[in-house]
Amino acid sequence: MNSEKDIKLRSFKNNLAIGGRGYIFFGIWIVVKLLLELIMGDLKFDILVEESVENGVERSFAIVCTVIVLFILFAIIINIHLMVGKNAVRFGKNQNNRKRFYIYTSIVALINIVGLAAYPIGIVTGKSTINLTFIASLMVDLSMVFILIDLFYSAIMIEKLIKQKSAEEEA
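Predicted structure:
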C-alpha cells in the first residue's frame, strides 16, 4: 500500500514535471507575444528597420540584420525556457539532472526577480505608465517568478521526502 510519503513524493514529482512543461509553454508564449507585437503592436518591424535606415544603413541590409537579431533573440528565449523546463521535467522523473536543474533555475529566477524591479523603476522615472499592457506584463512576470519558486519548492520537498524515506528504510 502507498504510504503518505510516497503519495506526497509522487505529487511533488508530478508538480515539478507539470511546472517544467508550463515554463516551456511560457517561453513559447513570449515568442508568440513578441511576434504579435512586431506585427500589430507598438513595436513594429518597420519601425525597427526605419531606425537603422535613418542611421545610414541600406534598407535591405537593415531588414536582414533585424531579422537575424530577432531570430537570435527568439532562439535564446526558447532555449532558456527549454533548458529550465526540460531539467525540471527530468528531475521530476528521476534525480539525474539535479545540479543542472538548480543552476539553470537559480540563474533564471534571479534574472526574473531583478527584472521585476524594472516595473516600479519605470513608473518612478516616468518611462512607464500604468495601463492594461503594463498590468498584463507585470502579471505574466509575477507568474513566471511564482512558477520558478514552485519548481524550487517541489524539488526541495522531493529531496527531503527521499531522505526521510531512505532513513526510515534503514531503521
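Summary: The CA atoms of residues 94 and 131 lie 44 Å apart.
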